[in-house]
Amino acid sequence: MNETESILAPSTGTEDLVESAWLHSCPSCGSRDLELFYEVRGIPANSCLLFDDRQQAIDCPKSNIGLTYCRDCDFVFNAEFDARQMEYSGRYEETQGFSQTFSRFHRQLAAEMIERHDLHEREVMEVGCGKGEFLVLLSQMGENRGVGVDPSAIPERLEGIDGAERVTLIPEYFLPEHCRTEPDFLCCKMTLEHISDTAQFISTIRKGLTAAKGTVVFFQVPEAHRILSECAFEDIYHEHCSYFTGYSLGRLFQSCGFRVTRTAQEYDDQYLTIEAVADDSAQSVSELPDRGDMAALVSSFPERLAEKRDYWRTMIRQAKEQGQRVVLWGSGSKAVSLLTTMGVSELVDCVTDINPNRQGYFMPGTGHEIVPPSALAEIKPDLVIAMNRIYRDEIQAELDGLGITCRLECL
Ligand SMILES: [Zn+2]
Hints:
- The chain has 411 residues and is of the alpha/beta class.
- The chain folds into three domains: 3-85, no CATH class; 100-280, Rossmann fold, CATH 3.40.50; 316-410, NAD(P)-binding Rossmann-like Domain (Rossmann fold, 3-Layer(aba) Sandwich).
- Helix content is 29%, strand content 21%.
- It has twelve helices and 16 strands.
- It has helices at residues 3-8, 15-18, 54-58, 100-116, 133-142, 198-207, 224-229, 246-255, 294-321, 333-341, 376-379, 392-401, and strands at residues 34-44, 62-70, 76-78, 123-127, 145-149, 167-170, 185-189, 216-222, 242-243, 258-266, 271-278, 326-329, 350-352, 370-371, 383-386, 407-410.
- The protein has a seven-stranded mixed beta sheet with strand order 6-5-4-7-8-11-10, sandwiched between helices. The chain has a five-stranded parallel beta sheet with strand order 14-13-12-15-16.
- The chain is globular, with a radius of gyration of 21 Å.
């Protein structure tokens, strides 16, 4: 056993987990020069699944995080990710479309893509299209014809929506055959971070495309340098097994037969985007972003994370000691991560969410009920913790509208 393997060998008491695929090489570049730097055990495997029964929510399937850094390509991944536990069916409720801030961002992104790539009456494809909102925007704003591939797609939800008549949703996992009509534009937003075999996935996309067609490929993922530098623990959860920087993402695309044409950070630097085109030439060299200080961020991560956890724990504990009511705003994966990794779940009274499709359900792992914001008028929270500071103004306006005076803190 070499040094890397001994670092990655799980500690005692996890024999049943050893047989679950503990990755010993980087799924993006194949290197074995790896460093395990953050572990969490027994957290919900699926943080976006909705449960209509509190006990079922508490008893949901659990898994582990073993966050691992590749010293060769800067890719960060969960070496303990258990793909067998994942479920991306219609029960998976990921849409952020009920937030005005997010909808505005989505519209801007569609407008930007249409303009930069001249997408008018063209064939567009989205891999991991969710419920198809972005394809509908590309159809509405550029009269494009869209094909969306996603096992959690629900085609019926698009019925009657203006522009949706040009959009076809295929509730399946992506295969190169889906590109039989080769698209002019292929996008994949907030999906690659859910995929553990990253090189295989990008190669599969590449197989559906030809260099001659010149399809523009656009990917968007959470940006990992920010997650590590801010110790954004709420952005680390089992569903997200793959974490990219501009460098590691660019390198992956290049190694899978793409030429990278653009990388950028958006949405308050939370998202990383990349644009690339299929390229057959072996000599093709993309200009990749600088590697930055990832290695240093990885080694200081545990200590900085402990400090940040203490800060939030103390705040929530002090509020409860004063008899205050504590509510989380946002019931998605960030809230699941906070509730299940901070040791404060019993101190949080409830969780609210503006997405009506989530209200009335229970949080995986802890069983907190998800209530509509209107219910807060009766709950009268003293401390509201928002899961994303980008929504601060929107949430404050909602609270004001409900006549609630309380302290609003944002992760
Ligand atoms: Zn690597």
